[in-house]
Specification:
Blueprint lengths: L1 H12 L8 H4 L5 H10 L6 H11 L6 H14 L13 H21 L3 H17 L3 H18 L3 H34 L7 H21 L3 H17 L3 H16 L7 H17 L2 H11 L8 H16 L3 H12 L9 H19 L17 H7 L10 H15 L3 H18 L6 H15 L4 H7 L1 H8 L17 H11 L9
Length: 508
Amino acid sequence: MRDLVELVGLVNKTKLKGSGMLKFIIEPDSKMEILFNALLDKKIESDEDAKSLFKKGGGDDVNLTSLKNKLKERLLDAIFLLDFKDANFTNRQKAFFECYKKWSAAMTLLIRNAKITGIDVLERLLKHAKHFEFTELTLDIIRVLRLQYSTVDGDLEKYEEMKAQYLEYEKIWQMESKAEFFYSELMAQYTNSKSTKEEVTQQAEEYYAELKPFMAICPSFKLHLFGRMVHLLIYNSINDYVGTAKFCEDAIAFFDKKDYDSGLPLQVFYYNLIVCYLQLGEFDKGQKAIERCEYFFEEGSFNWFKLQELFFLLAVRTEHWEEAYHLYERVTNYPRFEDKQIQIVEMWRIFQAYVFYLIKIGKIPDSILSERSRRFKMGKFINEITLFAKDRSGMNISVLIAQILYAIAEKDYKKSSDRIEGIEKYCSRYLKGDATFRSNCFIKMLLQVPQANFHREASSRKAERYYKQLRTVPLDAANQAHEIEIIPYEILWELVLESLQMKIWSGK
């Protein structure tokens, strides 16, 4: 059923239904239309849902398998009727669709012996394929034209021209293919638990050394996309955020010079550039980069939500509390937000816990809060985190810390004592190695709070040695995922101390 859900969503996104053409593809008032509309309205997600739908409607039994197959075939046949001109795509993405649609039309014409029209389409199409650097399509077109000019037209001059162009683009294609293969090999290593970061970095350096001479002589879109992404893996592996930011700016400048909107590369390098500004705590630069690149991220898409995550993290890490709150409200009030991918929804639920913590300790003024922002239940929050709860050495750390912070902020000292004691074993079991060093230090700092009877000065004094350990590995040098430390632990510790009282807790 997932393939149908995807196809129906595509048809809806391209407004085929609104154009009136859908009625020529799917008969009105038919069982096929009932199935299509139910999928469109998200009333069904499985075969069981579909069977229940038709049972409720009464009438004859429905052969669901046959109906699904027929609907799929109809929608696939309609793909070439879809209009992407008004979609939120770059001109290169739109050109890709149009060029391959014309390529298919031209080949159909040639097969049906409409050679004059077919060759004319290919000759005009070749200019567009070259302009947008669709190397594989360019090779296919040249191959067909070369054969036509040599065997049918007997035009030796055109044949020689096509032969020379074919050899030129074949070399480009070989360089592009190697870059794409190298990048695929490296990314496959990340799913192999036996491969160390050092091994991947060494392999990336060897691959880039082979690609670098190609990139120096060939400005091909695909070659530089994959070649620069291989190079980016080397930068990312050494936590050189200043160097990575410069590298990303250079990559953005390269793709900005193209005669078309580059789309994907700009998304990739802008995203990594913003991560650098996030790690370096440069809010103004990060905000400007986000404003510059939002054009390349379709609003409401997965990547758009990931971009908003970076913006939120950038705001809280630089103590722009109100900006973080307004962004949280904007994203979580987005239409059908709860229906987005689980990793998106859960990340913002974790952000929600930190927003409510900031509200609780007075960092976000009451005057700007919505009615919804005044309600938060920790038990409900914990139950809603199902995916990241399994990420023991990752985002679940942020979940655990949020629970302790909130208990301390509420001055629920018994609960915070219980929670802090409960994560001592968790800390020794899961927080090992460089990737969790800072989290390990911070949680040990939190463990000192109940031992100091929630006294501000005593907590600060008992946690001092762990605080010094924490500062030996600054955030911009930490070997950890950038999402884990939502608010830098140094800042968070100051907030914790501010929320503690100046007298010894009596335990009542």
